[in-house]
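Give me C-alpha cells for this 304-residue protein.
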Amino acid sequence: MNGTKEFLRTPDEYFRNLKDYPFSPHYTTVDGLRMHYVDEGKAGAMPVLMLHGEPTWSYLYRKIIPHIVSAGFRAIAPDLIGFGKSDKPVRREDYTYQSHVEWIKEFITVLDLKGINLVCHDWGGLIGLRVAGEEPSLFNSITACNTFLPTGDIPPGNAFLRWRDFSQNTEEFSVSDIVRRGCHNDPPADVLAAYDAPFPDDRYKAGARQFPVIVPISPDDPASRPNRKAWETLFKWDKPFLTAFSDSDPITKGGDLFFQQAVPGTAGQPHTTILKAAHFLQEDNPGDLAAAIVKFLKGIGEKR
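Here you go.
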C-alpha cells in the first residue's frame, strides 16, 4: 500500500444525467487515491454500508438507498477503487485482494463508522465479509446477497470458471453487456449506459479485469489463509446475519444455505429468496430486496 500509484479519474461529464441517481457526491482519500461514496440520511443514524461488486458501482444500489433512508437509517455506498467515480489505478498488479480489503478498512476508519450494518453483493462480500471477520467489533449486522467468502479449499463451480476464462480472454470487456447477461430481464438502455459510464475506454478497466483472477480458487492462494482466519470469526458470529440470495444465479447458488448452516447469527432471521432475479438482484427485483433488508434491520432494532 502506498500513495504513488498511477491512476485515471473518469471525468465528471460521463456521469451527467444518470437515470435514478440523484445523490450528491462525497469523496475521501484512501492510500493516496480518491474514493467516491454516496452518503444519504441523518449523520447520527445507524449506518448501512452497501458494498457493490464486479463490475458495478454504487449505482447498483440506487433503488435500495431511498428505502434504507426512509426507514430511518444512514445509507453509505462507496465505489470500490477502480470503479464508479473512484480513482482507477492503471496497473492490474495494484489490484490485489489485500489492497481492496485495506482500502475499505481505511474508508471505514476515515468515516469513523461504528455499529455498521453491512450489505454486500458479489465482490462486496469477498471484501466486506473479510473485513467483518477481522474487525467484528465494528459491525452490528450482515446481509449477504449473492456472495461468499472463498478460501480455495472448495473447488469453484464451472459457472465461475467459465466467467473467469471469459473475463481474461474476451477482446472487448463490455461492462454493460456483463451486467445485462447477469440479469433475469434486460435493463433499459439508459441503465446499461450508466454501468458503462465509469469506463470511457479499456484503460479504465484494469480493476474490473483483475477481479476474477484474484478470487481464491486453490488452497495456496495468497488470500486463502486470511479468509480462513475470517471464517473462524464467522463460524462464531452470533450477531444478526441475513441471507438474501436470488433464485437464478448459477455462480452463487447454494451459498445462502451454507451461511445458514455455518453462521450462528443466521438462526431465526427472516432469510429470503429474491424471485425472478439473476446475479444482479438489485436490478431484477429491487423492491423485494429493499423490503427484506429493511425488515431485517428494523427487527434488529425492535429486539434491542
